[in-house]
Here is the input.
Amino acid sequence: MRRLSSRTLLILAVFIFAGFVIVGCEDPTLVTNEATQVDQIGPMKINTVVEACAGSPTNTNCSPQGPLQLLVGYRVPEGSGGPESVPSSGAHDTVSTTFHKSDTYASELQRLSPAPAGEQWIGYISDDLNLDATTTDPDRETLAPAFTLPAGSAGSVFKYAITIGQRFNTSNPDATRPVVCDLTMLTSQTPDLTTCQTSTSPGGLGTDINGPTVNELGLAAGPAQTVHGGDTATVPFAATLIGPALNNPLILSASSPLSGGAAAPASAILAPATGANATSATLKVPTSAATGDYPVTLTATSGGQTRSATGTVHVLAVPGLVISFKSHSLTASKGGTVGLPISCPADSIDPCAGSVTLATAGKVLVAKKKARKRTLKLGSHKFNVAPGASSVVKVKLTSAGRKTLARTRRLGAKATFKMTNRAGKTSVTVKRVTLHAPKVRKKHKRH
Here is the structure.
């Protein structure tokens, strides 16, 4: 009898073991799937539960399987992007693994089951697995890839489909080799023990699953706002929601690099309805701010998702304060009070506030034991007039001023108005006036 060579025995052993694996294995199947949008406005996550062993009624008495790799293919809207790798968690009898994007699996799916117009295949393959026999729990892997959404998909229904497959690595242990399906069918097995489709989403690959309607929030800044240092600017923004109303409001925050400035959203939260929603951010500008343009950024946050837009605040220098004073001839009252009529310009950014001092325009003779001439302070008073308003500032003349005016009956004087604006800049306005003594009533002689 001819004895078989050791090389021939090794080859036979491999085929016998491979046959055992094929006969004793149970094909993986898709248990559940659900598409949800991450944080309401983010990518679309498809929560996928794959049962690696599904041959028995209870799925708890599967024989050992391995080494093998699980295949998961997603048919998603064209332009979607999938992550390069997706971690998975296994149930009691299954070790956790990582699924890696497989362009060859996606290409094979497209070759044998072309995606309809507007859709594309994205494929994944797991790391090498060795599954023990199940005794209590089925062998399961749960993965949830999050697919970025194509531009312009907001407001449309997210449609997708899923297919499950497997590949045994007993005859070819290279887990990085390309995925090769049967020449004509996804469900047939290739010579390297690859079955590209063992289970599909409900309805089969010919039917799309209708996921949720895609939401997207856009933020846009309104026109630039012009203010002076010390003012608070309110920058308008428009938050446009495309898709159904959100279940939870978004958190708003605002920021600006302006040193000493304080930015804040008009409200802490935003619960947008479908369409455009008006909102705003404020920026308190310090009085010391240099003139120029400063950005204000409004950010809307939903979980790990953010949307931002940046508006502009144009800061002007704080102008000096001025007052309007037209009287040149003033008559003192009997009590020695002079009324100075003043007006604050309507376009003044602040009230006209400060003090006025009356003094003689030149040196006058002051009656004392030793008569001498000097500039005489006649009195002073504070004032505060709102923009666009008028007032009369009443200055009580000093005793020396009253006596001098009573003696001379007329005095040339200067009214010096001194005001300091919010930025600390002092402005001085001097007006020349003529003061008249109060009229003296003549006494009538008795006959």
